[in-house]
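Lecture 7, part 2: worked example. A protein chain together with adenosine-5'-diphosphate.
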Amino acid sequence: MPGVSFVEATKKFDDVVAVDHLTLDVEDGEFLVLVGPSGCGKSTALRMIAGLEEVTSGALLIGGEDVTDVEPQDRDLAMVFQSYALYPHKTVRQNIEFPLKSRKVPAAERAARAERAAGLLGLGDLLERRPAQLSGGQRQRVALARAIVREPRVFLMDEPLSNLDAKTRVQTRAELSELHETLGATFIYVTHDQVEAMTMGTRIAVLDGGRLQQVGTPDEVYDRPANLFVAGFIGSPPMNTVDAAVDRTPDGGVALRIGTGRIELPAALARALSGAADGEVVVGVRPEHLTIGQGPIEATVKIVESLGHERHVVAELAGTHEHQDEIVTGALVIVRQSAEDPAPRTGERVGLSARPDQVHLFDRR
Ligand code: ADP
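Predicted complex, written out as structure tokens:
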């Protein structure tokens, strides 16, 4: 099973640069998720692999072979879309067999392969039904069966679960991951949903404005976001990011001034602050890494929201000051607590703290 490589691949629609010098290697057999907000270029990138969009500049390789100018039908891949595009008058069996029929595969082999694909997706009992007699989740599984029946080298999926209800989506997510393991094929999956990306991808590639922001395993991207965009996009609620001033201490250490508080960084972390960040930086802390108690950063509790198993507390940092004749209020941060933690009251003054090794530093936008 071959991988797919983008080599400085760019796609322009007149003035719009949809995909901007994308260089990315998708490994053979991996489940790579392309994720980013609407309009970031992820569908265009996928369609470039499929050959449905011409590459404006750069190249595209499948299995190490340059396919930039190869016709879509000769690329040996299958694409599954958000809309199932099943033939309404054909049965499930006929729908699944269709790609083989158009390739003139003999009837007996067609039937065997269709039944195997249907079996893999739990459609064995539904082969004689028509699409109208199926649920949304079942229809999407027929579309998947129709994609796998050809045994392509690469599967391309564009938001295939977004028409399903929440429960079916979670279930189908797990089935897709299982299918990926069974087939061992290369899966490239597009979604705007970072939860889907985090749960399904062996690696995820985060795009914004047509540019690759970061690629890594879900843990790498969550634990070490490359920039402010990734920090804000991955995680729900997203990472808190607030401006901070940097004080160099005489012993070579560093202290961050956040609102009225101060966090001293150990030498190892202080080194991560390059000389460039001598003035002001943006400090990022995940909501689950902020603690409410006697910490050094003063804040006022604004909202307390219980979700049953956990609690989200929105707090405003102290440190209101005047800037160019305007009153600038403190930044808002979200703290994620366990339901067992004592709940603060709205309006209460609290002290927030964060462990220095769970603090992220970013250059200003
Ligand atoms: P995403 O899938 O991340 O939502 P797209 O790849 O669909 O983003 O689009 C990326 C950018 O390219 C957007 O600005 C979009 O408007 C533009 N775009 C996509 N397809 C076309 C097209 N056929 N013609 C003109 N602009 C397009």
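The longest strand covers residues 16-26. The two ends are 41 Å apart (CA to CA). Keep this in mind for problem set question 3.
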